[in-house]
Amino acid sequence: MRISAATSHNLAPVRQALANYTVRHGDTLASIAKQLGVNRQALIAANPQIRNHNLIYPGDTIEVPQGAKAGAPAAAANEPVTAGSTSAGGKFDYNRIDGVQGNPNVTPAFISEVEAMAGRLGTKPEYLMAVMSFETGGSFSPGQANSAGSGATGLIQFMPNTASELGTSTSALARMSSVDQLQYVEKYFMQRAGANNGNLSTLEGVYTSVLYGSPKSDPNSTLWSSGSTEYRWNSGLDKNGDGRITAGEAAGAVRGRVDGNIDEGGTAISGNRSGNPSGNGPVDTTGANPAGIHNVVRGDTLWDIAIGNGIRPSSLIAANTQFKNPDLIFPGQKVHLPGISASGTSTTSTTGTSTTGTSASGSSSATTGALAGGVLGIAQSFLGRNASDLKRSGDLPMDAWVPNNVNCANFVTAALQKAGLINWHDNTVSGAASRLKADGWKVVPASQAKAGDVCILNYGGHIELVAGNNNGDIKLIGSNNINPDGSQQVSYSNPYGGAWYLTPA
């Protein structure tokens, strides 16, 4: 494919600026142009003081030109402006994506392989291109190093342990050409999202596979909620301040790398694109919702429904064979809740525990019951307990002197000790990981992580236990900084920040 200049950008003359715009965190020139309804090239022309169009900083002042795009009506400030042109055959004009035009890393061979990969995965090549633009800052360099020093490298910022899972290393990735590295980009998406199953049918699905570690194709899907460590790290993404970060909000930064609406036109997605891609049959939206039945609402997952009703996720899946793909459920569908009677109470029991669960000391804890035995059952019995209390109680062999805001390794190694899986204790993440490896624990990919395994996350700065893995949708349990004062409490969470996994030999 030939990459030509976007010659359709006929700019209106730059007139006297209507106003100034102050750059905010997460802004790009493309996102500012979309927000204000002006052409990105006109915005660049009005601001010659910006030497590098991919680098602007919070607090910078941007001159806003009065002229909208030639030949197009002025858009309202909150409406995206379609820009650029489509190439022959109706394909997306990749020059609309920051960093593409004139980039020696974006060769015709590179574009051709991205398009072929998109076809195999069941997504749009422009989605992959936009994510790689965002992750590399527009360089598309296979050796692009993470500016924060996390060790991440390359087109989608592979973490060292992620590279190891894929059978390579970050140093090897950095020595590859951009075309050669694409095979590992594809391998990553295949491992985390699968192919032609609808998971990568939106920009949100593609980007959350990189950011979150698993695909969330629905823009309204919640990634992190207020009070979690992950939310605090990414709070700048909560654009509407509603206390949750959605897939759509996270992907907004990627959309800012594109001039115009990336979802309009472009390449059609191959594979299963029916209105009901899971093949689960017609959606039943009629009738009341009796006890023992859950009506799916937007944002639901089978995992969340199971946890919320004190049911093992595997049992819930087994009781709902109408779902051909448990990862794809739709609003209005009905989920059968095994063990829930017509009165709405549980008809099953667990050995030695009630459905509300008990802590190791026999006192009630706010849990949904011990959903698994061994180390996971031990960890779940302490859900809702503050680390400060847990250290003093003697219920776990935790060191009491550890500060209340850094007990993740203290908790995990204590739970492993109590389960009889280790005979030592360590209060550091790096120390715990090293000693587990010395004991024969093996690094496994996310697809093979199982309940009770150990997860190292936050770029090596945090450790938790795997609470479950529903086809790549991994839930964790550990001591997390969710209290208002920054201290820790045992809670569920999700993997983030280059997560990797250890399993007993």
Describe the structure.
The chain has 505 residues and is α+β, with helices and mostly antiparallel strands. The chain folds into four domains: 1-85, LysM domain (Membrane-bound Lytic Murein Transglycosylase D, Chain A); 88-263, Lysozyme; 293-336, Roll (Membrane-bound Lytic Murein Transglycosylase D, Chain A); 374-503, endopeptidase fold (from Nostoc punctiforme) (Alpha-Beta Complex), CATH 3.90.1720. It has 16 helices and twelve strands. The chain has helices at residues 29-36, 40-45, 108-121, 125-136, 160-165, 170-175, 178-193, 203-211, 229-233, 247-255, 302-308, 313-318, 374-380, 387-393, 408-418, 429-438, and strands spanning 19-22, 61-64, 222-225, 244-246, 293-295, 334-336, 442-444, 454-457, 462-470, 473-480, 489-493, 500-503. The strands form four sheets. Strands 7-12-8-9-10-11 form a six-stranded antiparallel beta sheet. Strands 1-2 form a two-stranded antiparallel ribbon. A two-stranded antiparallel ribbon has the order 3-4. Helix 8 (203-211) packs across helix 10 and helix 13 (374-380) packs across helix 15. It starts with 18 loop residues before the first strand and ends with a strand. Residues 257-292, 340-365 are annotated as: Disordered. Pfam families: LysM, SLT. Residues 270-282, 341-365 have a biased composition (Low complexity). This is LysM domain-containing protein.
